[in-house]
Write a structure and sequence with these properties.
The protein is built from ten helices and 14 strands. α3 packs across α6, α4 packs across α6 and α6 packs antiparallel against α7. The protein has helices at 17-20, 55-58, 64-77, 90-104, 108-111, 164-190, 194-201, 270-275, 330-338, 346-349, and strands at 52-54, 80-84, 123-125, 140-147, 205-213, 225-228, 234-239, 246-250, 253-256, 264-268, 285-287, 295-303, 309-310, 328-329. With 361 residues, the chain is α+β, with helices and mostly antiparallel strands. The strands form three sheets. An eight-stranded mixed beta sheet has the order 1-2-10-7-12-5-4-3. Strands 6-11-8-9 form a four-stranded antiparallel beta sheet, with no helix packed on it. It has a two-stranded antiparallel sheet with strand order 13-14. The two termini are 19 Å apart.
Length: 361
């Protein structure tokens, strides 16, 4: 979701991968070699396919029930789906894609104005670097809080070059609107009270993380982004370059996600797993790279109000289905998540009241 820095680690010591590959390299520096990440991928043919949900069908009276059941099933069995006909204007999405490409193409002198500062997680840099010993990801990020507006860092969003700033302002509003619509539909599928979603998420926190994964001479040795589940409620991923690289862990193996044109990839985060009392599960995923093409994506995260309390929705807690997760303040949950290196689903699993062992998603 973001990056976190320990007191002993100077953020400026983490080299930009984009800068690293400007001069041709034959082998990957040792600090990027992830020998522990080579988990098996699916070899079955055809490969399992990520479910596709049609938003138009979800909001149409004639087709809502059937598509809502499909949404419910996708969230329970996968924790992921691709959303088509989402209603966000194509021209706006294209402007976002162009703007992100231009942002990562800025010269290093310009990028340094937005670089991560000591004790800060926002700006250009890398994600989840908490020690000098850990392996680094083969990719650069640009991360910032976008909502609520008062939480924006004055040296980031307000200082972005035009027209990117206006484009992201419009995109931020559109994606909050879309996130809330999806959350209300999920609540309907779950039998939750709409006010439970409204009270938790209406004044929620939105964050954006732009990811740039350059080609790698030894892609089998590195990881664009380490295996993890997202901390937040809902993630809406825009595949900017529509290059394959996202993989989802299912039944102990990694399934590649083929980008669909004009689609968003949506996934359940740890907080929504807790809110749904485990009915919907967050799913481990990772980003791989290749030797030929750059891959660019942007994840927009949406979480409950940081000052609010996180826990299973009261309407989903019954004598037959008691609360499976302990309650805590949203900001405290995020603080704990951001203070660690990415390690699968270990953080949310530690929130369980009765931990019966994690099952594969």
């Amino acid at each position: 979701m973001a990056s976190s820095k320990s007191d002993s680690l100077d953020v400026r010591s983490v080299i930009s991968v984009v800068e690293l590959v400007k001069e041709p390299i034959i082998s990957v520096p040792q600090e990027y070699v992830h020998i522990d990440q080579q988990n098996p991928t699916f070899t079955d043919h055809p490969l399992p396919t990520l479910p596709t949900i049609d938003f138009k069908l979800l909001v149409s009276v004639d087709t809502m029930d059937l598509e809502l059941e499909k949404l419910h099933s996708s969230c329970k069995e996968w924790g992921f789906f691709q959303l088509i006909n989402h209603g966000v204007d194509d021209s706006l999405v294209n402007k976002v894609k162009e703007g992100i490409q231009e942002l990562f193409n800025l010269p290093m002198e310009e990028k340094s104005k937005y670089w991560q500062r000591p004790e800060e997680m926002e700006g250009f840099g890398q994600a989840f670097v908490v020690s000098e010993e850990q392996k680094l990801d083969w990719g650069d990020i640009f991360y910032m809080i976008t909502l609520p507006k008062h939480a924006r860092k004055p040296y980031l969003f307000p200082m972005l070059p035009q027209p990117l700033r206006d484009t992201l302002e419009a995109y931020s509003a559109e994606l909050k609107n879309l996130a809330m619509k999806i959350l209300y539909l999920m609540a309907k599928a779950l039998g939750m009270k709409p006010d439970e979603i409204k009270d938790m998420f209406e004044e929620g926190c939105q964050m954006m993380r732009m990811n740039y994964y350059p080609p790698c001479p030894q892609p089998e040795l590195v990881m664009g982004l380490n295996s993890h589940s997202d901390a937040v409620g809902l993630t809406i991923l825009l595949q900017v370059s529509e290059v394959e690289g996202l993989q989802i862990r299912k039944s102990g193996k990694w399934i590649p996600v083929q980008p669909l044109p004009n689609a968003f990839v949506i996934n359940i985060g740890d907080m929504l797993e807790i809110v749904t009392n485990g009915i919907y599960r967050s799913t481990e995923h990772r980003a791989t790279v290749n030797s030929v093409k750059e891959r660019i994506s942007m994840a927009t995260f949406y979480s409950p109000n940081l000052d609010g309390e996180l826990g299973p929705a009261p309407s989903l807690v019954t004598p037959e289905t008691p609360a499976a997760y302990r309650r805590m303040i949203v900001a405290d949950f995020l603080k704990g998540y951001l203070s660690r290196e990415l390690v699968g689903k270990s953080y949310v699993d530690g929130m369980r009241i009765q931990n019966g062992g994690d099952k594969d998603n």
